[in-house]
Each structure stands twice: as structure tokens, then as C-alpha cells.
Amino acid sequence: MSGSDHFAQVKEAISATTSILFSNEAVENTILSSQSPYKKLLQKAITNMDGDSTNAISNLQSFQEELDQDFSHLEGKEAYLRKSGDDYFTNSFVDSKTGFKVMTYLDDEILNENVSNGKTKLLLDGTREKESDTTDSRNEEQLEGGKKSSLFQGFEASLPVVDKVIEKKKATHGLITEDKDKENTGDFLSLLVSDLPDFENEKQFDTDRISRSYSLKYLKGLSENIIRTINLLLIKKDMIDDEVEAADKKLQEALKKSEKAKKKLKTAETNELQLDNILSLVKERISFIEEYDLEVETSCSKDSENVEGKTDEKTPDNTEVHTNTNLNTREDNRDDVTRKEEIKSSRISHSLNEKISSKRKSKQNKLQLFFDEELGKSKKGRTTLQHHYDSGDNILTFKGAHANGVSCLDFDVPFGTLSTAGYLDPIVKVWDLTRKVQMATLNGHMATITCMQSSPHYSMLITGSKDATIKLWNLKLASQLYLEENADIGNSNQSCIHTFSSHLDELTAISYDTINLVSGSQDKTIRQWDLLSGKCVQTIDLSFIKSRNNDFYSNQLLGEKPLVGAIQCFDAALATGTKDGIVRLWDLRSGVPVRTLEGHTDAVTALKFDSSSIVTASSDKQVRIWDLRTGTLSNAFALEKPITSLDFDSTSIICSTKTSNFQVFNKIENRHWNCGPTHDSEQSGTSNEPSESNIITIRVKDNYTVAGSDDGTISAWRV
Amino acid sequence: MSKIDYLPTLQDAYEPLLPQQVEILRQIVVSEGGDAASIQSRFNYAWALIKSNDVNNQRLGIKLLTDIFKEASSRRRECLYYLTIGCYKVNEFTMARRYVNTLRENEPNNSQIIQLQKMVENKIQKEAWMGIAVATGVVAGAAAIAGMFMKSKRR
To answer: WD repeat boundaries (chain A) (predicted)?
Structure first.
């Protein structure tokens, strides 16, 4: 190798080292410092030059990587946990000076960024400093108020505090143990530090002495002392101010983070729920197929489905087979195939019907069977998704679900299954609140459905209709049949498990609890049914009740109010709200009213009770909350219009008054508010005016409200 | 002194605190959560370290100050001032010059900064003179040796 080559390589090696660590200056120190690893490496590079200089340079580069790692490790070290700076900057590669330089090096960019920013405050100019020194007054300080005190001032201000801590330590700890156990002193110190005597009264200046003193020297000294203390306090104030600012900033950031995380959680939970629902659908499908022994046929039906879906794909296959034959036969063949499929599918549906009905026939007691099957099948647990919405948020809306308005609705759990029925419409629609789609129709009643109740435990629905019958539906079977989309099944009411048909007039209210079902009808009776046998076990005659409002015209014009406006049973307890405005509590074992709650001046339209209280709503625009134990009124409030529907959960009572909003009464905060599409404060006042969509019926469970309107809209809200 | 100056003088940096005081300042930072501690507490500790007599402690102090500089954008200007003093104290005059020059650019009329800059420049010049002296000495020595070499060769 020639000498010039050598020289170039040495140059390269040096420039590599320099570029590795420092951008422009302060290189000489690194290289000149004794025992520097750089030096060694450089020497190595130079001495090994004739061998392979490239290797040396790569050595240097790998060294850089190691160095980086080493320093990144160092950065992670808790600088504050060290008692001193000894060997903080040293590591296996560099001495402390070089390490220090690397770690404290500031890029040009960061150096100039923000320093020249207008936001940063100006350092106090020395001349101005002198001025304020001469005036020596507090006012001057305040005049300059725009500027905050410096860190240095803060430092000076906090020194007295430190001294105080030391004093305290000496006082309590004594001088002896100081050096003996340093760790203990450390702990002790941290204890002391944790409750710094930051803002004790700095010094008690004796006012009496001031008023008595005639010594100018003393007073001047005192005034200087006071000014100094005040200055200290001002600086401290600034310090604390800064601290507050920084903490606030952090708080804001944390809040933003939490908002983001909440949003993520919401979407995640929504997805989870939807998948959960689909999974249960699949499971249902499997059990459905197994139950009705459709497995053999399933393969056929699968085929037929395939054919239906992929007729176009199948025909080419056929044509391939028959490519040699002429066109006519091919067409014939295709016709044959389709015809066969038709026959097949019709046969399948037929056999399916037969299978279902045969299974039904084989067991005498369908109800018994239903509950046996359903027993142990737990519905999905409580969801908390609704809590991720803000109070008053609209969760979902189905528009035009029922052509003539919603007559009644009920759902099992939030984001579960919703059943709705409309006026002049004998069909119940079942909705999936998670996927926001219709999942079944229940076809079987002959007239408008007036009341219904779904169960959080079984996938069943009980409906009462104007055709004087009560029907119990299997929602799982219904949704399976809905999926089949088979015309034959759609017409039949396969999913109806039992029809309770002893009433003589239209049903107005039903309620069930475990095995008891009670129903109130316009035939002036309340009937109690046994859900397991499906038989009527008790009839309570209500013919003694007279309408409070006997005005014939008003009855004719406004439509007759139901005799039994509301009913609820729990175990042997039964509560009824009737047309005469009286709420009666019955004992189902004896069949006599044990208590009457009088107060409403018009027909009771809705009621609900829990373990401690009963809430009733009436056409007289009042909501009354009664104490169940004493039978006295515990709270009441009036709304602007007759109440059509009422429900409550653990936190709020909600009422619908045939307006576009519904009223929410928060029991915990004792606060009324309107919720609905126009729940802005401005518009809530005008809610009396008839709008297009008036909420008629409403249900709430666990802060999740579903409301049905007279234009057929169903909407879900978070309250 | 009735009022605390807005900024420390160079002299301030040469008045060490008691080790106990430094230890307490450190404890405050630790109790506030190390890196999460307030800027003021961290500065207190860093400044106390810079004021100390031990070079390693001073360096650690500068390191902490650099962190504060990076973190608190509203405090950058003052931090530069402290950094200049710190670097001056640990004899890193090139770094000090860099910092003080940046400061000067932003506040050309600040007498304190002008003063500081002068001091830094003075130091650097002194060093430079020393460097030149050393260099000339080396050159002279080399020349002498070369001369001797030549002489011996001539012989």
C-alpha cells in the first residue's frame, strides 16, 4: 500500500469517530483525553491499517452501536437515586468527561427552538434589575408582575425550607445517629420531606413591639426583613403557580387519553357484543338442527342452497358434461335440474314442518317442555356498553317500524332483544339491539297487541292482544324460522308455544313472575295463570270498579280508558292500577285487596314496584311514589300532559307523555330532565306542541331506555 | 440582600451548599417521583449539584439541567444561562460559549449575558494562548530535535 493510501485511511477513521459522537466541536477533548477508548480504537485502526482498514472502520461503527446501547441504558437509570454524580457518566467505553459530553449535548435544533420563541419570557435585564433594587419596594415587583420569577429565585426561596428540614431532623433525630445508618436517615428524610413545612407562617413579627419601638435602626431592619420575606413569598407563589400549571397540563393530557381509551373500549365492546350475538345464533342453529334431527336433510338443503346461490356456476358443470350432446338436450337437462331442486326444497320444508309439529304433538305439554329446555340455558350476562354513552345520547333508531305507531314494546337486557308491536297490526317484530336488525316476526294474534313482557331469563315473550288471548312465544325458534325465510312457516305460528284463552274481552295489561302470569282484561276480570300448565288458576272479579270519569262524551271522544291500566305481580303480591284512579295491592293467595292507595284523580295508566316502593302514573298528569311498607306517599311530581307509560330502574324514573321527549327523574340526584330528539334546553319548553313523533310507550333497564312513538319510530337512549 | 436577584451571578455557582442540604433537595425530587417531579424541585437539586465542589456532581447537575431544558420549553432561556454557568464551572468552555452565544443572539442587550459572554471569551482566549504556548514549545522542541538529527546526520 502506498503512503497516500494510508493517510487517506487514517483520515477516514478519524472522521468516522468524530461523526459518530459529535457534530462539530469539542472533538479534541475526546481524542486527547488519556485512556479514551476512542484513542485505543483509533490506534488499533491505524496500526491495523495495512491489514484491512475497512474492518477497522466497521469496528468503529459497531462500537458506536454498543455505545448507543450503553447510553440508552444509562438514560434509563434513575439519575436522582444516585447520591452523587460519581461514575454516573462512566461506563465500559468512555470516561466520565466524554460520557458527560455525550449526554448533555444539545442539538442545534433544540438549542434554537423555543429559545427564540416569543412566548418565552425575557431574562430580566441587568439595568432594570438595578432600578428595582433601588426602589426596593413590593409595588415595583408587582408592576413587573407580567414576568414570573426565575428558577434560581425559586431555588433561593426553597433553601430556607431545606434548612428548616435539617433543623427538624436534628431536633428529632439527634446528632448521634446521623452517620451511623445512612439508609435509615434517608428514609427518615423522605418522611420529613413528604410533609414539608412549606407554608407555615414564616416569621411572627411582633406588632406590639413595632408600635412600642422608637429605634429607627430596628424598624428599618425589620422593614427590610419583611420585604425580603414578602419577596420570598411572592417567588414561592410563582413556584406553586407553575406547579399547578404543570399539573393541570398533565391532567388535561390524562383526560384526553382516557377519552380516547373510552372510545376504543366502546367500539371493542360493541364488536364483542355483535360477535357474541352471531355466535349464539350459530349455536342456536346447531341445537335447532340437532333437536329436530335435520342433519341428514341439512346436507341436502345445503345443496339446494348452493344450487340456489350458485345456479350459474352449476350449469357450466352440466354443460361440460354434456358438451358432446346437442343443445336441446342440454336445456332439457337444465330444466330437469331446476325442477328437481324445487321438488327437493319443497319436500324439505314440508318435512321440516312435519318434524316440528310431530315433535310438538309427541309431547303433550309444550309449556312444560319449553321451560325444561330453557332451564339452565343462561342468557348472556349484563352488558355495560350503555355506560360508555353520555347521558341523553341516542343509541339507535328504527324508523317506520310499525305503520300505525307503536302500541307496546319490551326488551330483555340492554343491547339484547327488543320486541315491538304496533296499532292495527297483529304482528310482533323482534329486533336485535346490537346488530340493529330485525331478527324475527311473531305471527299469530288476530288483533292489535296491547301489552307484552319479555323475560331476561328465558328467550320468551308473552303478549296480550285485543283478540282476548295471551300468547307465549319462543323467540329462539322464531328467529330460526325467520332465518329459514320459508313462506310456509311464516304463515303458521310455530313459534307460539301456548295460547291462554279464557278472557272474554281485550287484554289491557299483563305481568308475570316466575310461574305466575296475571292479566287484566276489559271483561272486568283479572286472571292468574300457571305458566307451567297453562291453566287459569284464579279469577278476580273487578266489576265493582266504576269509572271515576263518567262523562259519556269524554269517553266517546277520547277513547275509553282501559279498566285495568297497569298490573304487576311478584310472588304472591299483585298491584293493579285501575280506571278509578285507585292502586290496589292484592294477596294472590287469598285473592283480596290488602291495601288501597288512593290519590290519583284519573285512571292509572302505568305502575311499577320494587322491594321498597311503588311508582304510579296516571292520566291526571301525576306521578306518585308510594312507600310500600307504610302505604303512604313518599314523593310525587306532576307533568304537563297525561302520562301514557312509565318505567324505572335503579337510578331514574322515566315517563312518556305523548310528546317527542320523555321525562327523566333522576332519583339519586333528585333532578328532572327531558330526553329525546329535541332535548336541548331551548326546545324542551315547546315540547307540548304536537310533533311528528310522540312517544307513547317506554321501557328502561339499567340506564338503557327504549321508546316507541306514534309514528312507528323506535329509539334507544342512554339515560 | 433585600431581594433575590433574578439570575445568579457566576459567583453564586462557586458557593457550595452543605451536603445535607443537597441530600434533602435530592430527597424532595425522589419523593415527588424522580423524573416526574416538578421542574422547580429538579432545578433545585441540579443547581445544588452544580454549586458543589465535586466535578462529577457538577456534571450530573448539568445533565439534569439539560433534561429540564429539553422538557420545559418556557424555561429554556433561563436554563441556557444556568447551563452556561455550569459549563463554565466544569471548564467546558466550548459548550459554554455555544450556549452563551445562543443567549446573546436572543437578548443582545442583556448586560448580565454580555458580562457572562465576556468572561467565557476571556477564558477561552487564555486557553488558546496556553495552547499556542504549548504548541510553540512542541514545535521548538521538534525543531531542536530535528536540528540535532540533522547535525548528527551531517556528521
So the answer is: 442-483, 500-539, 574-596, 597-636
CA-CA distance, A565 to A546, in Å (whole number)?
Answer: 14
State pLDDT tens for residues A565-584. Answer: 899 998 889 999 988 889 99
In a 3-state reduction of DSSP, which class is residue A584?
strand
Q: Which of residues 10-49 of B touch A (CB under 8 A)?
A: 12, 17-18, 20-21, 23-31, 34-35, 37-40, 43-45, 47-49
Pick from A100, A111, A136: which is nearest to B59 by CB? A100
The residue assigned the cell 349455536 is A283
DSSP A251-295: HHHHHHHHHHHHHHHHHHHHHHHHHHHHHHHHHHHHHHHHHTT-H
Tell me, what's the ipTM?
A: 0.73
Phi-psi region of A473 (alpha: psi -120 to 50; beta: other; left: phi over 0): beta
Q: Helix, strand, coil % (nearest 5) of chain B?
A: 80, 0, 20
- Residue A30 burial by CB count (10 A; 0-12/13-18/19+): exposed, middle or buried? buried
Look at A39-43, A296-300, A397-401 and tell me which has the smallest mean pLDDT: A296-300
Dihedral, CA of residue A126, residue A128, residue A131 and residue A136, to nearest 10: -90
Residue A509 has pLDDT above 90, yes or no: yes
Question: Quick one: DSSP state of residue A83?
Answer: S
CATH architecture of B11-120: Alpha Horseshoe (1.25)
Integer Cα distance of A189 and A711 in angstroms = 73
Give the H/E segment covering residue A240. helix A216-291
How is residue A87 annotated by DSSP?
A: T
**What phi-psi label fits residue A178: left (phi over 0), alpha (psi between -120 and 50 degrees) or beta?**
alpha
Residues β-bridged to residue A541 = A525
DSSP-assigned letter for residue A146: T
pLDDT digit string (tens) for A86-130? 556 655 555 666 767 777 777 776 666 655 544 444 444 443 443
**What Cα–Cα distance (Å) separates residue A379 from each residue in A412, A457, A460, A514, A530?**
10, 6, 11, 15, 23
Report B:95-134 residues touching A (Cβ under 8 A).
Answer: 95, 98-99, 102-103, 105-107, 109-113, 115
Please, how many CA atoms are within 13 Å of residue A696, restricted to the half-sphere of its CB? 23
Quote the cell numbers at residue A462.
308473552
Among A117, A119, A129, select the one facing B5 at the smallest CB separation: A129
Cell of A689: 306542541
DSSP for A164-181 reads HHHHHHHHHH-SSTTTT-
Q: CB count, 10 Å around CB of A654? A: 23
Looking at beta carbons, which residues of chain B come within 8 Å of A116? Answer: 105-106
Cell of A603: 285512571
